[in-house]
Structure formats: structure tokens, C-alpha cells
Amino acid sequence: MSVRYICLLANNVENAIMSILMCLTPFLFAPFQPVWMLPAPRISHLQPLSDEKTLRVRWMLNCSDVVVDFYEIQVSRTEFHTIIYSNYTLTWTSAVPLNCTDHSVRIRGFYRQSGPSPWSDWVTNKGTEPEDKMKVFPSQRFLKEGTNVTLCCVPQRGANITNMAIYLKNYSVISLGTRVKAITIPNVTFPTTPIKAWSLTCNDNDKEKYWFPVSFPPQKPRNLSCETSDMKTVRCSWDPGRPRHPFDLNKQTRTLHIENSAVAAVRCAVSSCRFPVVPQLEEYNIRVVVKDNLGEETERYRFNLSDRVFPVVDWDKVSPRVTDATLSWVIEGKLTDSMPVVCQVTTSPDRSTEVSCQNGSSLCQVRLDHLLPSTRYSAKVRCSVNGRLWGNWTSVQDFTTNPLVTLNIWRIIQKLDHPHSRQLTLLWIPHVTGSGAIHIIKGYVVQWSQKDQNMTEQVDGGRTQTQMSIGSERCDLTVTAVVSSGASVPAHITIPQMNDTGILPVEKRLKDGFTSLSWDKWDKATCGYTVEWCIQGHVMPCALQWMIVADGNNTLLLPNLGHFKAGYRYTFNIYGCTEDGHHHIEIQTGYSQQLQSIASPSLVEPVQTTSSSVTLQWLYAEDDPAHPAFITGYSVTVQESGYDRSQVTVADAHMKSVTIEDLQQNQEYIFSVCALSEAGPGQTSTISIRTRANYSSHMAKILIPSLLLLACVILLWPQRKRLKTRLMEVFAYPAGMNIKTRELERFLYEVWTNHLQISSNAQRQLDCASCNAVQTVHV
């Protein structure tokens, strides 16, 4: 309960007389009073306000010339006058609704010379006395979220309250007098039930429920602003703050007041409001009021209408072409009639254009150039009156430019038996830019001219090549695609006259694992280069692939490296482009990876042999492109039975014979021949050969020792006696041992025989050592 006091002077005769008597009383009886005392105040009015928690208190001033320093007020509750408040502060709020029970007020004043006055009489505000039905307070049923609330049940006479419950949950009951009961709900929260209200019952057997909706007070509108799009209607918007639950029963009202106009208040939506422009009014002072059962909030805003113009734009149409598009839109409200409008057009990616719309028409348009063919674009538009405040963007408008067809053209030239005729195969690859489909091509027109002849051929859309016979002179050709939509760029190619330069192409080999090509620049090239190759290498028929290299560049990064297979030989022909045609300037050959699986050579028989050498010959197509690697030479292996191998290497792939020397006569050897490459040796061809016998060598070995021995016998025969004596000393025969001449001769013969055997074995070991030596011959 809030106590307020209003000090009123008497406004009628009776009150005036009473006031005069009260003022004279201290003086009339002054001799009989030792100390003057301030008279007791008299409460003249006690009125409860509509909030059920506030009492308005009025009392009379007893003497106008006496100024009371302060008052003390007391409040009591129930018929027992239980004092619940006593203080010198004249503001107090009751936690219990005033209708629940009696509330009484009394007051006294204080003056510095006399002390407190006597208390006034109690003045009571009676609580509700229901006659036939129980009543529940507060009657204003909306409960404020987050507050402590006291609810009371006032029964009719003769009834009694035993308990109170919220959603069948009993609370501690507070007695307010003899019959009235109350409960206090701390920190009120939103119920979890669909209906956002508390259900109160006053007795267990009472089937009637009393509903108390829970809500929160209105919030002050934030970020209030106003704008117009057509100078006819003003739209104001704001942030309403905390959103309300859909089942919140505390309904709000929102009104907008134009304070500097006589226009009536406008009812508003939750976060916006519209009202027509007030004629001749430029400056607006507005007030937005939000009100509900728990309170009221207000926000003010001031603006100049001309500064708050936000044009609204709607799309008219979009007309795309191959490399440009025309966009048009409509500005609502015909703003261009009275003020300049600037519009901003944005297209993805990150391209912006500004357009001035001052033609007095609401229709504006712009042409977007330098677009890519067959490409999807997105555009949006917004406009402004003063260039500072921009209206909202339109919805995004998607459009796709029309396709553009280009042709990659090439040719194959073959000489015919006739010296002045050539067979020309013209090939082309169509390319539709962007995401365009190839099915838009309906056909092709091929035109060529040579000397004074001009010819035209219609080619079906499913074909990408044509053949023709041309003469030895220069020939110019053009191919154009016929498309159902979009446009086509004609492709041109020139065939030079036969044998006009006599250029011999330079041949080079590529390293394994090539990913790009490079070649020497040709100073006569004026329009770049063209590189051609077969997609499947040497495999026929050739699926020709070609790429054009721009002028000034002499390198090419090869596409689709996965198409280049290991063991396949690829030949790249490089042509230099001039005004009179393409000329063959270089040939590059290589493997993405060389493989070792090379076929074996074919040995030629019979093989030429001698007693000490063998000459091998073989047949082999070393330049065959079917080989999985480049042939670099040959390897010949020689092996004698039971002995180590020796190897001869032929480093020239075009030489297919070799002579193996220093072999043993009449000896069997195994010869193996294989081709060599950078990947390693290939498969081998093997042959077994026996060398011829050399009888003259055997005779020399026998006769020479024999002749030497005979010469020694002849020379030593006259000295045989002395030799005998010397031998006896050398071999130290025992004394008395009789050595006969025949025995001596037999001894010498055995010595000679052993000598011959040892010499023969030594010679054989020497010959075998020379056979085991490894020989490498580079021819």
C-alpha cells in the first residue's frame, strides 16, 4: 500500500469554524497547560485506488501558521488492528491486496518545540464481504513474471478455508483475520502447461478454479525509425524486444501518435506501423505507445520525410544474349517525377554498375557487357534518392547467356599418284562454351577456295570431318556450325602449296614420363604452332589429337596424362603456323614409360665357325614402333659347358652381327642374343655351337718336345759316362749299389715321360685359364 497525504484547508463553513476553534484552543487554555502540545491531525479521506494496493489518505491541517516538521503513519490489518507498518516514510506498498481484509490508517505529526501530537483516530478501508460466493484477489488476475505475489481467498459468511493449492500443489496458508486465507508465490515463473496461467483452488472440495495468467510488462520500443518508398505512405518499424509466447493472455496494444498533427492515433502491429503522409507536413514528431495489463512504455522519434525515402524496386524483365544482357526494373511511386534516383545493379561475381534514372519514367534499364557465353549470372538492384540511404535489394534474378560455338580445326594431307593432286581430310572439334549442350548444333557449312574456284559443302551435325581432293596450289577453308540458338564463330585454315619450303623436320627423342613438350622457336611462325599425335600411340587406325599453341609460346602442357599408356610409342608432330599455312618443323618421339618386354632377335643359320671363333648374325626390326622401348643395342652371351659366362655387347642397334674369338677348338659353346633398351634386356634367342678341331696345333705340341729331347740325347751321348757318374752323385746312390747301364736308361726314360706329362698338363691349365676370362668387345 502506498500512502500519500494531501494537506487541504477547510472549504466549507463547518470545517472553517472547527479549524478556528482548534487554533484558538491552545491560547484559551494556555494558563492551565504547562507546555503547548500540537493537536492531533484528523484524517478526512481514505480511498483505495484501482491497483488494489494503494490507499489515498487526506487529512486536515489543524493550524495554518504551524508548520509540522514530519508525520508518523501507522497501518493496521484485519479487524484486530494488527499494526503492519509504522514509519516516518509516507510511502508504503501492500503485499496483500486491499480487498482481502480491512486496512486501517492513523497519523500523528511532530513539531520541534512540542514533540508528537496525539494519534488521529483509526480510519478503516473495509475488505470485501462476499454474500453468496467466494471471491479471490487480486481481481486484476495478471501476475508479473519474476515477482512475489500474494493471493487470498475470501469466503462467504459461514464458510471456512482449509487449504489453498496451485495446480494441486498445497502452499503454506496465511491467516488474514478469522476467515480470510492467503498464500505467497515467490518468483513467479511461466507455467510449463500450454495455457500460460496459474490455477488456484481454495479448498480440496472446491471444484471451481481461479486462473491467474502469467506475463511480463511491455518493453520499450528500440531502434525506432521511419521511412517512405513512394512519398505517400510512411512506414515506421522498431525492435519490440522480447517475443511473447503464442498463448500469452496478456494482450498488448500499440498505437502511434503524430504529436505535431491533429491526425488521430494509429493502431500498429507488433513491430511496425503505417500511416498516410500528412499533407504539407515535412517534419514529423511521433510517439509509439505500447500498453498491456502490466504497464505501459513509450518511445519518441523525429524525422524529415525527404531524408527518409527508400525506393522500392520490382523486376521488369531480363534479356540475355551471347556476351551481354539488358536488365530493366520499375521504381514504385513514380519518384523520378519529382527527384533524381540512382540505382545500383550488382551481378555475380563482384560486379557493380550505377545507373541514373531521371527520365520521368518509373522504368529503368541497364546493359551489361563483356559477359561470358553460356554462363549463369545472378543480378539484384537497389535504388536511392540522395545517394546516402539505399532501399532494399530486389530478389535475386538469375539468367544465363546464350551459348557460343567455336571449332578447333585441323587437316591431314596425303599425296596421290597424280603429281599435282592431294587428298585432304578436314577435321574439327566443336566446343560449346560454358554449360551449353552440344545438341544445339544442327550441322556444318564447309567452304573452300583454290585459285578461282569456290565450293561449299553441307555436313550433317553428327559428323566432324570431311574429305576432298585439292590441287597443288594454296587452298583456304572455312567451317561454320549451324546452331539452333546462340551464335557460331567460323574456323579458318590454310593449306600451303605443295613443296613450297622444302623444310626437313628436326627429330628428337623424349625422356620417359614426359608431361609437356618444348621445341625451338621457328622465326617464320606468325600465328603460333599446332601439335598433333595419335591418342593410342602407334596403334592403327590413328585417333588423331591436336592442340593449338598461341603465338610467342613454344611449350605445351599435355592434357589427360592418364591416356598415355606405358610401352606405347608416341610421335608428336609440330607444325609452325604462317599466313600461307602450317609447316612441319619438328618430330618428337617418346614413351611415357619404356617396358622390358622386348621381342627376341632371329638368329641366322648356319653359323660361321672356326677352331677359335664364331660369327653370329641375327635379324631384328630395331625401328619398329611396336617395340615397348627404344632399341639401344644387343647383348651376346657365351658359355662353355661347366664354365662361367662371358658377354659381348653391341652398342649399335643397326649392327646385327658379331664375331667371338679366342675360343677353344673342338669345344661346345652356348650363345644367347637379346636386344637392349633403357628399360633393360629383352627376351633372348639361344643356340649351341661346337668349334672346329685344330690338328696342326696338336702335332706341334707333340713334335717340338720330341725334337728337343732328341737333340739333347745326341749332344749328351758322347758324355754319357761322365753324366752317369754325375747322376750318381746327384741322386746319391748308396755305396756298393751297382747301377747297370740298362737300368740307367730305363730311369732316364721314365724321367722324360714324366716331364712330357707335366708339360702337357701345364699347357692345358693355361688354355683353360684363358677360356674362363670374360671378354667384352665393342664393335
TrEMBL record:
> Which SUPFAM superfamilies does the record cross-reference, listed alphabetically?
Fibronectin type III
State if Transmembrane is listed as a keyword.
yes
**Which residue ranges run through the membrane?**
699-718
Q: Which InterPro entries match?
A: ECM_Regulatory_Proteins, FN3_dom, FN3_sf, Ig-like_fold, LIF-R-like_Ig-like, LIFR_D2
Q: Which UniProt keywords are given for this protein, alphabetically ordered?
A: Membrane, Repeat, Transmembrane, Transmembrane helix
Q: Which PROSITE patterns match?
A: FN3 (PS50853)
Residue ranges occupied by any Fibronectin type-III domain in the UniProt entry: 308-404, 600-696
Q: Which Gene3D superfamilies match?
A: Immunoglobulins (2.60.40.10)
| CDD domains according to UniProt | FN3
Q: What is the lineage of its organism?
A: Eukaryota, Metazoa, Chordata, Craniata, Vertebrata
Name this protein carries in UniProt: Oncostatin-M-specific receptor subunit beta-like
* Pfam families per the UniProt record, alphabetical: fn3, LIF-R_Ig-like, LIFR_D2, LIFR_D4
The answer to keyword Membrane applying to this record is: yes
